Amino acid sequence: MNREAVIHPTDKLKVAIIGSGNIGTDLLIKVLRSPYLECGAFIGRNLSSSGMMKALSLGVPVSANGIDYIVKNPDCCDLVFDATSAKSHFEHAPILKNLNKRVIDLTPAKIGLMSVPSVNLEDSLTEFNVNMVTCGGQASIPVAYAIGQTQTDVEYIEVVSSIASRSAGPATRQNLDEYIKTTEDGIKEFSGATRTKAILNLNPAEPCVDMQTTIFAKVKHPDIEKLTGVLAQLVEKIRKYVPGYEIILGPIVENGRIVVMARVRGLGDYLPAYAGNLDIINCAAIAMAEEYARVSLNQTSREH
Amino acid sequence: MANNREILISDPTLRDGNHAVGHQLSAEHIAAYCKAADAAGVTIVEVGHGNGLGASSLQLGESKTPDHIALTTARQNLVKSKLGIHVIPGFATIERDLKPALELGVDVVRVASHCSEADICERHISYSRSQGVGVWGCLMMSHMISPALLLEQARKMESYGAEGVVFMDSSGHFLPDDVRQRVETLVNGLSIAVGFHAHNNLGMAIGNSVAAADAGATLLDGCARGFGAGAGNAQLEVLIAVLERLGYATGVDLYKILDAADVAEELLIKEIPSIKSVSVVSGMAGVFSGFMKPVSRIAKEFNVDPRDVFFELGRRKIVAGQEDIILEVAKELAQRARKGNE
């Protein structure tokens, strides 16, 4: 059955976005385009910020009262995207749990299950709080997972991401250490590698460079054929929610290492297309929310 | 000619030199050279992986000697000289790398970023400062921005608590006037010390260092026999001799630094750095000198001209730390060549 055929606009899942920065505003545009989602509230702290102005111009209900808005207007949403900061999410998570809201956490707070839609979408559906790891994690974990699935004795995986300086806002720059830690944890969890390492380079070249990530692995007996096959399937899945995801090199063995390079070109919604690093985490969050929407709407229609 | 100005000497032989030997310096190497540099009266001896603390990786090459062993060994063999480390945020984190390093007795932390990205250093600089050690900011690949923008970035480092800023000619691209302009701009615009780190791709390392000192820099980097990435750095023992002739006071004993250079040559250095053809191209193209080894290896594997690889990397404005892109560029050049032949 074609599930999409039975969706009516009124059946959409109501979501709220907390955090009106670049990530939150880009998410908003993606939500408004989604056939499964509608935005019940766009919440920040400052009505004159450029994200808020954008939301107002799009006719979306906005608030500058932070989490309090959801506490006072619990019917505004069933699902909350938290695009604030790890520190804020630690405050938001218990409040949203009490309100029985599903949460997709885009901060590195890592309270809930780490979720990468191409790898563990199904497992994530039963969770009430899922964490989207990091931008570099969304780009590299599928490859690390493929390595874990196809190679034996994965001693070490390293991911090196290059992003355009302009795509790294003040929060990213202040939180490089947290980015590294969370990405390393994610790689470890999804690949089973004994040791992991994450490295981030900012490149200021103009015109801005597209986000790229290189995955290196040390394994006992590299099986490139097997890896290539599994990776191709995963990439197909990723491209469903991030069309600009592309393997540009590998898998090859070079200097005793397995090497795979991926490039991520974004959709160019609120953020420019080169900021594939920001786009991929938002696309992953939307893919997650849409799957919740489909599942819950299916259940509702069965109950009827 | 005596001008009696003091110049602090920072010696990254045991850090930058690691680039030249694939990061394979051993604890014995570290012990022997630390003793010699300490005896010579070098102000700061910097130790570690070529890209600094926490940088041992497949991307850049894995260290033979883990950070904690390198630092413990150096600490045991330095009495007068300060123990320094190079720290690049994005590679080294405070919890995993910096904190344990400081516990091992590091005296001076040099927190480095690409020249236009000083704000990624804020937390590492202020953390080091709060721990009571010496802190310098380093702006790498400094030829890629104008003197005015360099000053803007250096001011950020000053505001985070750096007691000095070193700008690095990581590609060996500068000519003496480029260096002079930058030092003057920094000295006039900052209230903290200014230092310079030279590479020798175009044969200018000593000349550029002298230009820096004459323009008001008060810290210079130099390595024994020039032992460093690519074409090497300012050759330390030559720098000391030249500064002595110019009348600068470095506090370094000439005979003993010559002895230290002999120790380095005998024990550490497989091949004395020289300006290879690809190093000239690296300097011209403005690409990090440390790319020489991986570019040469990968160009061979993909059957492309390493000089073309360097110019393409320069065109793309690739920064230090982006060694993975060499593979992509080599692959692309190989494909282009194939298409051209068809």
- Helix share, percent of chain A: 40-55%
Under CATH, the topology of the largest domain in chain B is which? Answer: TIM Barrel
Radius of gyration of chain A: 19 Å
User: What is the topology, as strand order, of the major beta sheet of chain B?
Assistant: 1-2-3-4-5-6-7-8
Output the CATH topology of the largest domain in chain A.
Rossmann fold
> Which H/E pattern describes the elements of chain A?
EHEHEHEHEEHEHEHHEEHEEH
- Count of domains of chain A: 2
**Class computed from helices, strands and strand pairing of chain A:** alpha/beta
Number of strands of chain B: 8
Mean pLDDT of chain A: 91
CATH architecture of the largest domain in chain A: 3-Layer(aba) Sandwich
**Spatial extent as radius of gyration of chain B:** 19 Å
Q: Shape of chain B from CA axes?
A: globular
Number of helices of chain B: 14
Envelope shape of chain A: globular
CATH-defined architecture of the largest domain in chain B: Alpha-Beta Barrel
Give the gist of this structure.
The complex is a heterodimer of chains A (304) and B (342). Chain A has 304 residues and is α/β, with parallel strands linked by helices.
Description:
The complex is a heterodimer of chains A (304) and B (342). In chain A, helix 1 packs parallel to helix 2, helix 1 packs across helix 10 and helix 6 (135-150) runs antiparallel to helix 9 (224-241). In chain A, the strands form 2 sheets. Chain A has a 7-stranded parallel beta sheet, sandwiched between helices. In chain A, strands 9-8-10-12-11 form a 5-stranded mixed beta sheet. The model of chain A is unreliable at 1-7 (pLDDT under 50). Chain A has 304 residues and is an alpha/beta fold. Chain A has 2 domains: 3-132 and 281-303, Rossmann fold, CATH 3.40.50.720; 135-276, Dihydrodipicolinate Reductase, domain 2 (2-Layer Sandwich), CATH 3.30.360. The longest helix of chain A is centred in the last third of the chain and has 28 residues, at 276-303. Chain A is built from 10 helices and 12 strands. The longest helix of chain B has 18 residues, at 324-341. In chain B, strands 1-2-3-4-5-6-7-8 form an 8-stranded parallel β-barrel, surrounded by 7 helices. Chain B is an alpha/beta fold and 342 residues long. Chain B has 14 helices and 8 strands. Chain B has 2 domains: 8-268, Alpha-Beta Barrel (TIM Barrel), CATH 3.20.20.70; 277-341, Orthogonal Bundle (Helicase, Ruva Protein, domain 3). Chain B is globular. The N and C termini of chain B lie far apart (65 Å). At the A-B interface, strand 8, helix 7, helix 8, strand 9 and strand 10 of A face helix 4, helix 12 and helix 14 of B.
